[in-house]
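Service request form, structural biology core

Requester: graduate student, group of Dr. S.
Request type: structure prediction, single chain
Budget code: on file
Notes: please return the result as structure tokens.

Sequence provided:
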Amino acid sequence: MGNERMKQATSVGGSSRLMLIVSVLAFGTVGLFVRGINLPAQEIALYRAVIALLVLVVIMSLTGRFAILKQHKQDVPKFLITGAVMAFNWLLLFEAYNHTTIALATLSYYLAPTLMILFGVLFLKERLTMFQVLCFVLSTLGLVLMLGVSTGSAGDLKGILLGLSSAVLYATVVTINRGAAGVDGIVRTFTQFVGVILVMVPFIAFRGGFHFSELSAPGLLSLLTLGVLHTGLCYCLYFISIVRLKAQQVAILSYLDPLTAVLLSTLLLGEKISALQLLGGAMMLIFSLLNELNPQKPKTECPLAPDRV
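Core staff response, request fulfilled:
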């Protein structure tokens, strides 16, 4: 009996790791697909949420999660607000892809774990260990290094700043969501997508209207892939897997996302990134990861996935 349970646990762990790897590798390709969609960033964010929401309606209907949503109706306003924040998080990240390389935009965005340390201190009254302070300082130094060697290109600087702004909003979403750790991740994401739609529709209407009719066939294919695969299905894979794995496993495997983005940016698109920029980005990732793996860090919910991408 004991051996059978161990085999089952091993099997579940293996399948969960596979689901997590598939999802984070997919998240690392988001920039490539966004580049292929000939629409403004705000419309990409809206249509992505609409398509993903339709996918989640099917999944929630099949899994009985609408009943769970009713049990947490008191949390719905909070999730709608975080969805509104998420909408502009996506918008800024997608706009960053238009001004700098996918690699630099993604690396800038990965300042979010460092920002969550700061937000935890400011808003959740958390205390930092000396190790966390060290990780915060060195990851911020990596950011300074990236910015310092980007001054020769106005596009790079603007793209990095947009990526950083997106990271601030992502850290805000995660900080708010940490107060609702007991709510099913798919249910929470479903509600947040509704919030994205509610805020993006009037925003786009006042910012020049909609341009969906101008979308090309390749752009439509990229948009459907972004909505169905990256957002609808991969979000579900991510949330199913993280509750079955240890937080450290999730933290380590999640960093396949920026590594994938950097590799695809340079290998497939031929985008250039200097050695110093790469060093700065590596410092940000390494010290953010070390903070996640810190054994003295309080146990919290696993970070949310590309709510971000």
